[in-house]
Amino acid sequence: MKDICKTENTPYPKIDYTDIHFYTVFRQSREYLKMAETEGKVTEKVTESSQKLPRNYPETIQRIIDLIREKPDITRQKLAEEIGISPDGVKYHLTRLKNKGTIKRIGPDKGGYWKAL
Fold it and tell me: pTM (2 decimals)?
């Protein structure tokens, strides 16, 4: 891996590990983007509204964030219907996301809206 990075003039990746896993972290580099563009892999710029959360976020949480970004005034009931989980499940995820500072409720329960931070 280091030989390829040296050949392509890109930074060496950082390798982290735990007792049971190892992670390869590639640092952001203009060279990586150039390589991807020349190979046709980068087709669009990422905008703030289309950014995804880190890969370790479960799909349900990612879907909640995406729906909040699309429709800030969405209700818990509508989130539950869209995602296919119970309203209590949505409430649980929303509470966790609020506590982490990922989302914020602006205004009252009726008439307010969500903001993804």
Answer: 0.51
